[in-house]
Amino acid sequence: NDVEVYLLSFERCVEREGWPKEQWARIIAPFLVADAQKTYFDLEPNAAADYTLLKAEILARAGVTPTVRAQRFHSWTYRNGKAPRSQMFNLIHLAHWWLQPEVNTPARIVEVIVMDRYLQVLPLAIQKWVGQGEPANAQELIALVERQVTAEELLRAPVAGTQRDLRAQGGGWSRVKYNDNVKRPANSYQCYKCNELEHIAIQCPSTDEPMEYSLSVESTHPFLKTVKINGKETMALTDSGSAVTLVSSALVRPSQLEHTQKTGIICVHGDVYYYPTTLVNFEVQGCIYEVKVGVVHKLPHPVIIGQDFPG
Asked: Are strands 164-169 and 258-266 parallel, antiparallel or unpaired?
């Protein structure tokens, strides 16, 4: 039942027998069951044949992430009545599972420890949002923190009457002005979607919840453009207000998903949901970009281009 213990026992066994690591995935494959077996078949053949990648994906889908391992290490406490030596080795074991010195370089271990400490001292709201995003390295952690800080500043800052918003119009771009004729008190917000006061677009109550869609349906919506995702032609919403670019799971193979590197999405009710990410080739008007996108099962459109899009 404990996938970590099972994999550790397997590794000890094959190491004792002297079997080469490049054969480990092939050896363990027939003994995998349930979700672990499904993970094996979901991966591309090359990835499934790599034991390190296979193990990482199995553990990620089982909810055993670096964050969980760090929490286990930090939550360890000394227990009276138990042998001190045994408890010390338990703590060492937890540290090994968290820091993985057998695969991580000294520099990477230092980075993991620094990231952990950095997360612990962040404000609680940012810490929760960023921590669940499972940043893989310091740069991703910083990017998540900066994104959340920016979002909070936008929620606090009043919208100036002269501020403009970029919107797609047909083949080009035009600027849409906020309603300057509405008298509003100082330090109030105005939504550019409905022009009502006291909230911004991300909080707009008139925004519909995500719904099912058909990839074959053509639309004359002025903000929809034809794009290609990994060579597959589809429609993209270009003026969504989304901070990140999202694509439907129908456009991405399950084996391409990175469950260990998720992106957080704030819905209209303020709840945060986390979705796997992947790299896709994004073709817009003849230009091709490699973009890291969030993959969502249900979207109002096949593709939603966010503010992080490089084009």
From this structure: unpaired
